[in-house]
Design goal:
The chain is mainly beta. The chain contains five helices and 35 strands. The chain folds into five domains: about 120 residues, Immunoglobulins (Immunoglobulin-like, Sandwich); about 90 residues, OB fold (Dihydrolipoamide Acetyltransferase, E2P) (Beta Barrel); about 70 residues; about 90 residues, OB fold (Dihydrolipoamide Acetyltransferase, E2P), CATH 2.40.50.200; about 100 residues, OB fold (Dihydrolipoamide Acetyltransferase, E2P), CATH 2.40.50.140. The strands form seven sheets. Strands 2-9-8-4-6 form a five-stranded mixed β-sheet. A five-stranded mixed beta barrel has the order 11-12-13-15-14. Strands 25-26-27-29-28 form a five-stranded mixed barrel. The radius of gyration is 33 Å and the shape is flat.
Amino acid sequence: MKLKYIFSLLIATVALMTSCAEEETVTLLDEIQVSSSYVALPMGGGSAKITVTTKDSWTVEKVTTDKNPVEWLTISTTTGNAGESELTFSAESTLDGRTAEVLIKSAGKVQRINIIQGLAQVSEVKVAEILSGPDGKTFRTTGVVTSIANTEYGNWYLTDETGTVYIYGTLDAKGGTKNFLSLGIEVGDEVTVEGPKTTYGTTVELVNVTVIKINKSLVKVDSVANQVLPVEGGEFIAYITCKGQGVSVEIPEDAKSWLSISSIQSAGTSTVVKFKAAANTGGDRGTTLTFLTTDGKKDYSTETTLTQKGAIIKATIAEFLAAAVGDTQYRLTGVITNIANTTYGNLDIRDFSGATYVYGIQDFQTHNLKAGDIITIVGKRAAYNNSPQVGGAVLESVIRVTPTTIADVLIKPDSNNDYFMISGEITSIANDVYGNVYLKDGDDEIYVYGVYPGYGATGDFRKNLLADKGIVVGDRITVIGTKTTYNGTIQLANGIYFSHESAE
């Protein structure tokens, strides 16, 4: 163990002894006063008491997580009345040091009590043991820096042969924060760190770690050229400094079909690696390249990334229909108006500019799509018997639309994200250009602020739907939109035309 670490343990021990001796210490809270905010329990088991003084009734609770339930700590009572009370903390003997936090609450205030039994022992482990270990425990581990997310606080990823853990905060040589750059840590370096584990959502983290050792990588990427390649492809160049025994390069398997090494040139410790990327007929793509070297005893690596723009063209359905048959990929968004085949997803979609047939959607049955849903797909311009269609379609996203009644929409909360499909009889037309109408179904009526030709309509494309389709008062219309309220009037906003039935 480092002398620095031993010294820090001695300081911690002195602090604990002091806190036990100074029974006169009280907090500055008027509502809650305690004789000590630190409680030390012996390793062999035992109890310790503090005095709690409050102006109102109080409760006490342990701070727990699923992975750290603090079952080892016993508290004499969890409630108390105003005045002075005695609170006892107890624990059985333990071989490992452990800590906990307790909250005393009264009159809207919270007093934190820190409990410690022995001194927490630092375990040197593999990353896999950290991932499965309890929150709150301090671990020491060694791994390679694979990515740096924040260079001020020192947020980065440490990887060994068993897994990857996120480092959330790195202390500098003096124990300070927000000074990560002073450590000189780079991607590819082998670093030994020490810190407590926590879990944030689903991410396992070591927080505010102390750096024990840095073993600088013998290979690093100094700079790159053409890191974002155009659709037509081109040359990507990586400039490497290598102090090991030569440089080797790893291209991921899924990138080998479009990316290759064109040359490797070395002079002293400088190496230039050139890559050739093929033209991209699909969507945006990218990869991570790994550069490796060795000193004969240990392997070192570093990484860089490159991306290439895709050939996917965002288009209206009218623009898609006007395009030539070919392998160019198009991104289309529209409303499903009909599903012809529920196994393969042969269906029709429509936007404000027109409609087209989609000859199947990949993995259609797993998406639970229905007529009325708004989907975004990527596919190529195809044709069958000279009839245009979308071929090889892949679903990118879906906006779920809920078919319901006017009565149900009237009681829904306002939302720009929830889409509803309703039907009703047009009782009056407030604006025939934009299609502002009143719809009635039974005894319920709602104002529809705009009925537009289809999804994606803007500007003049929003105008004159009613006249173009001959829709008049008395006709029954089905529209899609979101529920909003304006000046106290509930409305269906920015309605998308789905279908109508003439009163005649």
